[in-house]
Specification:
Distance between the termini: 30 Å
Order of helices and strands: EEEHHHEHEHEHHEE
Structural class: alpha/beta
Number of helices: 7
Largest sheet: 6 strands, mixed
């Protein structure tokens, strides 16, 4: 039996850029459909992680990243505003892991981030630090990168409007979803093809 496809966008905010032991302070995920239709399963979750608890699991801050946050007071104020919603490190990582496991079992799960080499390895090292022994809860061949999609369509003439990241996990997730959907919509309007699974299909009149 073929599973339905489900796309999930992920974004994290951190206190370090070290993918091996950096501290994640917030995680957001949201399901979406690449053409802008409603996803097969509407999901929107945000987690805020207690930094003191993260240190118990050897997650580290870096002076450079802390300095960056101090130089962006609006972004830091937004992060600080959610301090009462913070949960324990292991609690958050297990909650996210279990949710992804369920989605992976039920759907053909594609997980997106803006870039392949930061959010994914940071999450995977955090799963391990939380003591999670299972396999990564998504297939490596179904990881997807927002930047690669935008670059591919730009070669065809699409012009992406450049917007600075908000550095608020859920706001960035929603912006990244638009960055995937908008060039696909442009392509359909200009070339008459729609995206279906991993292929292009002529749009019906």
């Amino acid at each position: 039996m073929n599973k339905q496809r489900l796309d999930i966008m992920v974004d994290i905010e951190t206190m370090s850029q070290n993918i091996n032991n950096g501290m994640i302070v917030s995680i957001a995920i949201k399901s979406f459909e690449r053409t802008g239709k409603d996803p097969v399963s509407p999901i929107k979750r945000v987690w805020y992680i207690d930094m003191d608890d993260s240190e118990r699991f050897s997650r580290k801050k870096s002076e450079e990243t802390i300095r960056w946050w101090m130089e962006h007071p609006d972004a830091y104020a937004e992060l600080y505003a959610h301090r009462h919603e913070r949960q324990g490190f292991r609690e958050v990582m297990c909650d996210l892991y279990n949710l992804l496991v369920v989605l992976h079992l039920k759907y053909e799960l594609y997980v997106w981030s803006k870039g392949i080499d930061f959010d994914f390895p940071m999450l995977e090292s955090s799963f391990r630090a939380a003591g999670i022994k299972g396999d990564v809860p998504y297939d490596y061949w179904r990881k997807r990168d927002v930047r690669s999609v935008v670059s591919a369509f730009e070669m065809l003439g699409y012009q992406q409007e450049r917007k600075a990241a908000a550095h608020d996990a859920i706001s960035d997730v929603e912006q990244q979803i638009r960055e995937v959907q908008e060039p696909i919509k442009w392509f359909t309007q200009h070339y008459g093809y729609v995206v279906k699974d991993e292929s292009l299909t002529p749009a019906l009149p």
